[in-house]
Specification:
The chain is mainly alpha-helical. The protein contains one helix and no strands. The N and C termini lie far apart (105 Å).
Length: 80
C-alpha cells in the first residue's frame, strides 16, 4: 500500500456500483409494500362504488326497456 488509510476512489466506486442498485431495490420494495397496503384498504370502497354504478346502469336499462315496451304496446294497439 502507499500509506492511504482512508477510502480510495476505487473503493468509493465499488460502493456506489453495489450500493445504488441495492438502495433503489429497497426503495422500490418499500413503496410497493405501501401501495399494496393502500390498495387492500381501498378495494372494499372501490368495489362498493363499482357495484353502485353497475346497479344504476341496470336500473336505467330496465326502465328504458319498460318505456320501449310500453311505447311498442301503445303503437300496436293504436293508442299513441
Amino acid at each position: 500500500m502507499n500509506g492511504v488509510t482512508g477510502p480510495t476512489l476505487v473503493g468509493i466506486l465499488i460502493g456506489l456500483v453495489c450500493g445504488v442498485p441495492a438502495g433503489m431495490l429497497v426503495a422500490n420494495l418499500r413503496r410497493s409494500w405501501v401501495d399494496v397496503g393502500a390498495a387492500k384498504k381501498a378495494v372494499p370502497t372501490a368495489r362498493k362504488g363499482a357495484w353502485s354504478r353497475t346497479r344504476e346502469v341496470f336500473l336505467l336499462g330496465f326502465l328504458l326497456m319498460i318505456t320501449v315496451a310500453l311505447a311498442i304496446g301503445a303503437r300496436a294497439h293504436g293508442t299513441s
